[in-house]
């Protein structure tokens, strides 16, 4: 059977297993570690396969037998339900992609700039600005003032920027990037360029950035995921159906279900809603189409990511 | 006067750096610092005013620490604080060990193609929201249709009604948190490990250092700054918790509250009937202040041990 | 080091000044002397495909009638509460918002000053509206003598009913008329459990309890409908104990879903997987339900006559925001919406000839395009001026009025508790309640064991203090009546 969801603490112990192989990792250790990673990686992917199976299960079978790995009857009905709202889905896809791409570019640039500056000993105010960024990780003014800034100062309501700007910078990523710059871009490399009279900006673009691809790729990956999965900003700022991203279509269903659960007394009057709430299979189909694109594009994305890591690895 | 002059000279000398941080600074000012003024409502009884938020804040009466009382008033207050801290401690320690171990293994195993596949797989849970994860957990733990109970029955064992027996949940929650977070966490460390200068390893190999020794004396020391920083940051969030993990995964089941109730879920449930902006702001402020103090403390201790590793 | 913070701090102050300026200067005032005005209206419900089309027609009409156009913002069911909390707290200018006891909480928002007092506005700009409404709504929805939202004219009382799947009732020849109490259901449930696999004997519901709840129907505060007129802890009453015992018995027998306490099963009508459920009745509701379900249903009342609770009179209302720049126009619009048959039907069913058609006898029938425009009728406005469907009974609205006349007032009708003095206790009690109530009210746990625990924890959370405060406020209110 498949590995059930019981706690397992095997992974860390394995590190000790390979004591006796001086240079390369021994065959045996390699095999053991491979197996462990494979099992864990499979347990990570498995739910997604499961979700796909459920989305292809006939609704009446789900109703009767519950979830199962090999459903009695397969059905594409759930996807037909989605086909019926294809124009909205397509529009939402476009929005999500646009937001993710634009947002990732903006956020990687802003974060890398900031992190690089505070990683350099030449920058006199680096400590202050590090603290300035760090402080925001712990304290926030809460939702309402944030909403006011976005709607009344920046006038972001019902624009695509409402989905991009609020997530553009993240102090956590800045601090990770700062450490990365400190470790991977040592001053010694930059010294010679400085002696040649290159400006700091030129050094940054021509030497630092190419050296930092692994770090940049990591940050880019994180922000891509963040943008792709965001729905809360859409809830706050987007009323125009043409600007609703994919994830918030999904969350609307969830929120409605939770709403029904908490308002049991209402049953009489909310009959109208119940009809619009998709059944289990349709919900899973929704999960599939909201997650699949990024899930399948990630391995391609990862190629560059790994490339970035390797380039970073073979540097002088 | 002289000092002010010197300050401006410094600003001028550092103008390139300042230019670099400028976009970030503007963003922080707008989205983080400006909204912080809203925190005053934690000390007020918030009443709406027709002239907008500022008028509301100014006209609401001060109530001191009254909005904080509900966090401390009952026996539950002890339980939620204990749960929050204990879970976070386990998450921090176990998460650190597992993520670093995974990153090192990924870096060491000989088949790089497979390493890539594993890495892709392990990041998968990060794509799924907690709501979806909770469905998935449900397919395992459901009393009559769950996979685990089916297996148990197969072996002639008693069915377990998972969602009403608290003793299993500390493990389930820790497992789920690790399951979802390790792929993501190991990527950060992997990026740092790959960034380590290969020359160190070559030198070590010439000296006849075993793999284990290499890891202990090169890899781990090289990523220690990152470990320290991430841990300090996590300690700052020790009073916060992942709402989805503690609310959606246990399906908000009442009988599990003794082990699943944390500060965030307590605040949510307590204010559901009243929708008090002031009280939820107060709870947020409480979490931030404790986190802040802890971070400053940890950072101070780290500074005493090794100045280079400190956050600021 | 200190200086840079000083500089930053002054920047902040400057920015906050800008912020303050922005938030107060932004207004679209006007319309005092009949200029054209645009009203923003937040409404609950799933946004509809043909919304813009219909609103264009609406705006044509309202522009002609009261020189006003409407910007309708439909927010989905589950999002509405969250969104409105932020919109209201931020002091954003808008004009009209849906409010009720169950979404965008009417009492809390009114108490906190989010809504305009409407008494005078209604007398000046909404006379027809006032005339059209059942006075029970206007009286019941007043908080400390003032009205803060326009109730929707519909059924005023609540009547819990058992709804049965008619196919199964006929099949086993059940006499549903004989059911007087929750316990009477048992033999039927047993038959269904034994003979019908794949059918859940009862959906997850709590039986009728003779209480008038103060905050919501899980919190422990209520006035018993019979007996002493004061607020008690319902979880210490015999009636509640009896209900919980029966529920637990049914649960153990497998009549209730085994994971009822945590399930998100919505028990959609169009899935025929149940035998009996609970609904709130309105005249001819069984016809609507049967139509939605696609199979026949029958009903049997749970208690004698309908009861008018606070929750039922504030079940669906439109409030005018305290931040509205054009409250008069907003009232004129609500007046028109609730009294003008053309506008009301247009908003309810869409455009005639496109979304529905009128038959020769004056009745109406949906057209296929209607699925692109389905809005929650009960939440929008006056029900009594809606056109009747082909299959509706002639006396539908008369029956509604009869139903309203039969309704008995609940003891606390018009009393709205102000939780401010005991909000710490209420927060704690709310937590304890969500820990125990769901499990008890679905029968999932044994009341003999859990009820004492629950009550003990309630006491620790400050139940007595909260009860004292409530009863104090209640006594004061009663004196004024």
From TrEMBL, chain B:
Q: Name one Pfam family in it.
A: BPD_transp_1
Q: Does the keyword Zinc apply?
A: no
Localization terms from the record: Cell membrane
Enumerate the spans annotated as ABC transmembrane type-1 domain. 81-298
Q: Which residues form a coiled coil?
A: none
Q: What is its main location?
A: membrane
InterPro entries listed in its UniProt record: MetI-like, MetI-like_sf, UgpAE/MalFG_permease
Q: Which CDD domains does the UniProt entry name for this protein?
A: TM_PBP2
Sorted alphabetically, the keyword list is: Cell membrane, Membrane, Transmembrane, Transmembrane helix, Transport
The topology of this chain with respect to the membrane is: Multi-pass membrane protein
Q: Where are the transmembrane segments?
A: 21-43, 85-106, 127-148, 168-196, 217-239, 284-302
UniProt record similarity statement? Belongs to the binding-protein-dependent transport system permease family.
Record's protein name: Sugar ABC transporter permease
From TrEMBL, chain C:
Do the record's keywords include Signal? yes
DUF3502 domain residues are 411-479
Which UniProt keywords are present, listed alphabetically? Signal
| One Pfam family hit | DUF3502
Span of the signal peptide:
1-20
Which InterPro entries is this protein grouped with? Bact_solute-bd_prot1, DUF3502, SBP
Tree of life domain:
Bacteria
Q: What is this protein called?
A: ABC transporter substrate-binding protein
What species was this sequence derived from?
Answer: Fictibacillus barbaricus
